[in-house]
Design a protein that fits this description.
This protein has helices at 2-5, 7-25, 28-56, 78-105, 111-130, 134-153, 159-189, 194-200, 208-225, 233-240, 243-269, 271-276, 280-300, 305-325, 329-360, 371-374, 376-390, 396-410, 414-439, 455-473, 478-491, and strands at residues 59-62, 73-76. It is an all-alpha fold. The longest helix has 32 residues, at 329-360. Helix 7 runs antiparallel to helix 9 (208-225), helix 11 (243-269) runs antiparallel to helix 15 (329-360) and helix 15 crosses helix 21. It has 21 helices and 2 strands. It has 2 domains: 1-277, no CATH class; 279-494, no CATH class. It has a two-stranded antiparallel ribbon.
Length: 494
């Protein structure tokens, strides 16, 4: 029972302790076992926390028994518990996959380093999600970012170093903006506890430092979540990173950044301060639509599948922000549901592309010709996930877009319904490029003797692809959690 009380702390401590342990042990097999145990333990803890929150409400955990706001607080509510399950769940699936995947993509002497950085990144993302302290968000953000830069740079293509450096520059600018925003909020409220800050900010609402903090945090977090046009780091990072890294980042990193944006907007500044007094609704709507259409159009013209689906991620982030711009329960529910559904779908796509790269020797459209005959199940998985991106009924993506359309109809904005459907047709175009190459072209002779696909890669990829269908059919967990989280955010913590 006493251990159950400390689950919020263990959520971060377990992967954080695993990181130095993998460095000390060094041996590939042992480092893998430690990282795998840490990720599965993190998933078990996240599920237990979600069940506890569903049963008894928000959990407040005081670090070192210093009561908040004087001490650091870990706070688990409906939204944070939902995101914890996503992040730890993706890590638990990606790690078994990575064992065989990095054999072909990362030099063997760097394998222990990969596992170290992976669990460190996991600890950072979980820490961002669970902490109730503004400065702690920045600290965990830096932990996850620094480890991400190393993970991207481990890619075998030399362009991975350039992609990592580009992300480092843009990520540092984003982190600087975030810490300036947090500093201004501390200056005006005298507290770093998010719940306490939300209560105190009412007295100084509308002052220049608070508005400046809102601006700094919006730009800084938008860089981290790759909101168009601040997305330039993302396509190269996803394209040239090892496949397991691409899958993990695509499914978690930008989603946690969206969580941070939601947390500051609704729990700290308050809905009225962000959406009523400022033209944030119009600004977010324009940026979301620009991302949905421009990024999807660019994706159509890509010749490499990893890059194609990287631009697709920028487009899908547009849908997430579109839901936020509605400033309604339905819109916020759509945002939170799509945060989860897109994470699962895009994680599956990049795991499947890693399988394709191993067998076919690359992910360019030229190399994957005839993939439907060479790798029928992998091709089917990619088609199913592509249908989810389009929003076809029976897939997770349909649920997200359905709630977006409901939110638009609630506002009486029929033209937005038309734009959501039109942007989905662009997704049809770029998914069709894969279908055409895989099913309507003859296999290349130079790919006939490719490597065999290990089951340790095929099974995790298949699990996530199946999840993209399951969450399209059973929405009790996703929509149920998202609706409750949206109600909590709109009600505020005050």
């Amino acid at each position: 029972m006493s251990l159950a009380l400390h689950l919020p702390a263990l959520q971060v401590v377990v992967p954080l302790l695993a990181a130095p342990l993998t460095v000390l042990l060094r041996r590939r097999s042992v480092a893998f076992a430690v990282a795998l145990a840490a990720s599965w333990a993190a998933l078990a803890i996240a599920v237990m926390l979600w069940l506890r929150v569903a049963d008894s409400g928000t959990i407040s955990y005081a670090i070192g028994n210093w009561p908040p706001p004087w001490g650091i607080e870990y706070r688990v509510d409906r939204l944070s518990a939902f995101v914890l399950v996503l992040v730890s769940g993706i890590a638990a699936v990606v790690l078994p996959y990575s064992r065989a995947s990095i054999e072909a993509e990362v030099p063997s002497q760097q394998h222990y380093l990969f596992y170290t950085m992976f669990v460190l990144c996991l600890a950072g993302l979980l820490g961002i999600t669970i902490t109730g302290d503004a400065f702690n968000i920045f600290v965990f953000l830096e932990i996850s970012s620094l480890s991400t830069y190393v993970l991207i740079a481990l890619g075998r293509d030399r362009r991975a170093l350039v992609a990592s450096y580009q992300y480092l520059i843009m990520g540092t600018i984003g982190a600087t903006f975030i810490v300036i925003g947090i500093g201004l909020l501390y200056l005006m409220t005298g507290t770093l506890n998010l719940a306490d800050m939300g209560r105190r900010i009412a007295a100084v609402q509308g002052t220049r430092p608070v508005l400046a903090a809102l601006a700094f945090l919006t730009v800084g977090i938008s860089l981290k979540l790759a909101l168009f046009p601040l997305h330039q780091w993302l396509p190269n990072a996803y394209t040239f990173a090892p496949s397991a890294v691409s899958a993990f980042l695509a499914a978690t990193a930008t989603k946690v950044a969206v969580y941070v944006l939601l947390r500051f907007y609704f729990s700290v500044f308050g809905e009225s301060a962000v959406f009523t007094r400022l033209p944030m609704t119009e600004a977010m709507l324009l940026l979301a639509l620009a991302g949905m259409f421009v990024a999807s159009t660019i994706a159509i013209f890509q010749t490499d599948l990893k890059r194609l689906f990287a631009y697709s991620s920028v487009s899908q982030i547009g849908y997430i922000i579109l839901g936020l711009s509605f400033d309604s329960a339905s819109g916020l529910t759509a945002t939170i549901v799509h945060l989860f559904n897109h994470g699962v779908t895009k994680g599956a796509i990049f795991l499947l592309l890693g399988c394709v790269a191993l067998v076919m020797g690359g992910t360019s459209l030229a190399r994957i010709q005839g993939l439907g005959k060479r790798m029928p199940l992998t091709s089917l998985g990619l088609v199913i996930c592509g249908l989810s991106l389009i929003g076809v009924p029976g897939t997770a993506g349909f649920v997200s877009k359905w709630y977006l359309i409901l939110a638009a109809l609630e506002k009486g904005q029929w033209w937005l319904v038309f734009l959501i459907v039109a942007s989905s047709l662009l997704a049809v175009a770029y998914v069709w490029r894969f279908v055409e190459a895989a099913y309507f072209r003859k296999p290349r002779q130079d790919t006939a003797g490719g490597a065999a696909l290990p089951w340790t890669m095929a099974v995790p990829a298949g699990v996530l692809a199946a999840a993209a269908v399951y969450f399209g059919l059973d929405t009790s967990f996703t929509v149920g959690s998202a609706a409750q989280a949206a109600a909590l955010l709109l009600g505020g913590l005050r």
